[in-house]
Amino acid sequence: MVDVIAMQPVVPVIGRLVVVGLGLIGGSFAKGLRESGLCGEVVGVDLDPQSRQLAVELGVVDRCEADLAVACQGADVIQLAVPILAMEKLLALLAGMDLGQAILTDVGSAKGNVVRAARLAFGGMPARFVPGHPIAGSEQSGVEASNSQLFRRHKVILTPLAETDPAALAVVDRLWRELGADVEHMQVERHDEVLAATSHLPHLLAFGLVDSLAKRNENLEIFRYAAGGFRDFTRIAGSDPVMWHDIFLANREAVLRTLDTFRSDLDALRDAVDAGDGHQLLGVFTRARVAREHFSKILARRAYMDAAANADDVVFVANPGGQLSGKIRVPGDKSISHRSIMLGSLAEGITEVEGFLEGEDALATLQAFRDMGVVIEGPQHGRVTIHGVGLHGLKPAPGPIYLGNSGTSMRLLSGLLAAQRFDSVLTGDASLSTRPMNRVAKPLREMGAVIETGPQGQPPLTIRGGQVLKGMNYTLPMASAQVKSSLLLAGLYAEGRTAVTEPAPTRDHTERMLRGFGCPVEVKGATAAVESGHGLVATRIEVPGDISSSAFFLVAASIAEGSELLLEHVGINPTRTGVIDILRLMGADITLENPREVGGEPVADLRVRAARLKGIEIPLALVPLAIDEFPVLFVAAACAEGRTVLRGAEELRVKESDRIQVMADGLLALGVKCVPTPDGIIIDGGGMTGGEVHAHGDHRIAMAFSVASLRATAPIRIHDCANVATSFPNFLTLSAQVGMRVAQEAQL
């Protein structure tokens, strides 16, 4: 016998929806909501008899009326989808009617004139009027082009005013979201400024260019030999002239302001061409290309700034078993990639970088310096060319500097920017916005910096320029390469000597690279010091493979029976090799082959074979040398015989996630016995089941549990893995290449 489950009917949210104007936008809105079942009745209003007939025949509306007053009787929501310049007359008609508690909303591309027209018609802004603008369209028009899916995954901007009834706003918001739209709320003035720049100006330029060329005598040849770029750029000149005539008249103040700014930039570009200033041209073109790629990612829902808050849950499915073999080269070291951009930008001359990590964290640093006027070519297959501007050549960014998920970028930049002549604001994604920044802000303030943080010392950071920094001797309360590096960078500008003393060794990439750029760095025991007055000279940098990325494969090959893997060209800086030392203490079979030095950094090929691991008490001296690798080391401990104890790692609680607690939760879910402590964890090795775990947006957690599947008895589903791209863009590809069985779950 088969059970039949009855589908529950959709309960209408409103009784009657009236749509005035049955073109593409109005018709699609009406059709989508009619199909959704959220409206008891959908009524259309249009002056064109044929449009009214088609609207009913095509299922766009339930019925149509020619008379506005008849249609609006008993309406709960009235959507105004008429041309902008017709809005004033329509609102005047509505103002003369008894609309009861009907909610009014519109779809106009400019909001200021709609609000002014509403105030004029009603003698003040009606509380139940919610101005709106769907950013969607089609090259087709008319009611016959109505598409119930038109707004899916498109922006809809609502511009409520102080007078707007919150209940009315909630209803309109709900209706758009039911159509699959991404709804945002914005001030009227801000909307018109933004749309003037992103929509209205491009249309104006396209219409103007085509008209200008068409008026020339040689226009036949111009159009005959026009290439694809001309076609793509001028496509929007095929838009409805009447509609755009209305838009430019309705939003003329904002359009003029945007046009004036563009004319100024265009004049500067003309001057660069006239003067043969290739540097200026290259700067404009490289920034524009990157910006265009970034905008494309946003439109495609792939931007890193969107990932944490808005992206669907990215799930990795890691299947049990597998054996690792072959040889691979992991991406370039993230720490060195960050620093190569920073110091290359501050150097005099052109710096060439090979092996740059094209992950989103390092790209955030690169973009920050582009925003501050540095010309940077690439990255292209790991190759970056930086046209340095010198220690004092940075320019103010046009707005807040967005650093995605990169705590390294924010902490190091805070030291560098504290000494500049201009103000800066540093922001990040949802994850970075919870990270502590006082540990770097406090000593910088002692040097004379003026830095404001958000609540509890978290981002955003506002850094006031024009301060005179003074060198100092500072002892770190806890080991942190990021804080040390930030103070040394500030020390390049500070009066006198800046010395930083560590309680335990941390990565020394900054010290090594500063020397490579010609800046003397004094290192005595646990203290590193710099003095101001030394410029940086451009150099060539070859970024070795990231040992933090290698760690996942070192553990994977160690725990998977029968594995043997060669990791090529891995950086083995002695301040970073804690993961190798810990694994060897646990019994891992790891050998270093072909050791060499590249660009001041020690490099080797790492050969790892499967081995029976045993639990250990991790030496305190090794903890800061492996701080980023502990998530996957916890997996090694779970697969080892006996008990592993970690202490002195409280730093793990303030990374991208609370890595101690998140890893403990995941291991417990997989049947591993473990007890988190304030500064570490106790793990009893043994069997591991499958199950569901959560990475909490932390890339290292996601990859660690991917490795765990090699010894699991059932698949492991790992949630919230989108940020793996921030540090290891091709992790899944390399994993499959060497024999691991982990892949992203297909999105429905």
Question: Could you name the key traits of this structure?
Answer:
single chain; 748 residues; alpha/beta; Rossmann fold; UDP-n-acetylglucosamine1-carboxyvinyl-transferase, Chain; 4 domains; 6-stranded parallel sheet; 4-stranded mixed sheet; 26 helices; 32 strands; disordered N terminus
Short note summarizing the structure:
With 748 residues, the protein is of the alpha/beta class.
Write the layout of secondary structure elements.
Elements: E1 14-20, H1 24-36, E2 39-45, H2 49-57, E3 63-65, H3 68-72, E4 77-80, H4 87-95, E5 103-106, H5 112-122, E6 129-130, E7 132-134, E8 155-158, H6 166-178, E9 182-185, H7 188-214, H8 219-224, H9 228-234, H10 241-250, H11 252-275, H12 278-299, H13 304-310, E10 316-318, E11 325-328, H14 334-346, E12 348-354, H15 360-371, E13 375-380, E14 383-389, E15 401-402, H16 407-417, E16 424-427, H17 438-446, E17 450-452, E18 461-464, E19 473-475, H18 481-491, E20 497-501, H19 509-516, E21 522-524, E22 527-531, E23 540-542, H20 547-559, E24 564-571, H21 578-585, E25 589-598, E26 601-609, H22 630-639, E27 643-646, H23 659-669, E28 673-677, E29 680-684, E30 691-694, H24 699-708, E31 716-719, H25 724-727, H26 731-738, E32 742-744
Parallel strand pairs: 1-2, 1-4, 2-3, 4-5, 5-6, 8-9, 11-24, 12-23, 15-16, 19-20, 30-31
Antiparallel strand pairs: 7-8, 10-31, 10-32, 12-14, 13-14, 16-18, 17-18, 20-22, 21-22, 24-26, 25-26, 27-29, 28-29
Give a description of the structure:
The chain is of the alpha/beta class and 748 residues long. It folds into four domains: 14-186, Rossmann fold (3-Layer(aba) Sandwich), CATH 3.40.50; 205-276, no CATH class; 316-328 and 545-744, Alpha-beta prism (UDP-n-acetylglucosamine1-carboxyvinyl-transferase, Chain); 337-542, Alpha-beta prism (UDP-n-acetylglucosamine1-carboxyvinyl-transferase, Chain), CATH 3.65.10. Helices cover 39% and strands 20% of the residues. A six-stranded parallel beta sheet has the order 3-2-1-4-5-6. It has a four-stranded mixed beta sheet with strand order 30-31-10-32. A four-stranded mixed beta sheet has the order 11-24-26-25. Strand 15, helix 16 (407-417) and strand 16 (424-427) form a beta-alpha-beta unit. Helix 4 (87-95) runs parallel beside helix 5 (112-122), helix 7 (188-214) crosses helix 11 and helix 20 (547-559) packs parallel to helix 24. The protein is globular and about 85 Å long. The protein starts with 13 loop residues before the first strand and ends with a strand. Mean pLDDT is 89; it is low at 1-7 and 301-311.
